[in-house]
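Hello Y.,

Per our agreement to keep a running log of every chain we model this quarter, I'm adding this entry. I've kept the format consistent with earlier entries: sequence first, then predicted structure.
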Amino acid sequence: MFNINLLNQARLESDLDSLGCLDIAEELIEKMMEDVFYSDVAQRIIVQTLAVINNANAKLQATFNILEDEDMETDERSVEFEGISYYE
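Predicted structure for the entry above:
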């Protein structure tokens, strides 16, 4: 078991807030953590969920990068939020 460190959570929350769906931040982070647990380092993962954007149902995708760990002895994985896209 290891800890997952989301390096730029404030940017994720800011991007979600600009779309009017900040309320799904925790859901996205939980899904990301599940995917990171079963993924290799230096890998990009995409987390999808449904959201209401501009008064319409949309499929939202958040992209994260699992960063390489220089010290393989640690029980921590660092993850960086890359961006959000959506389509209705």
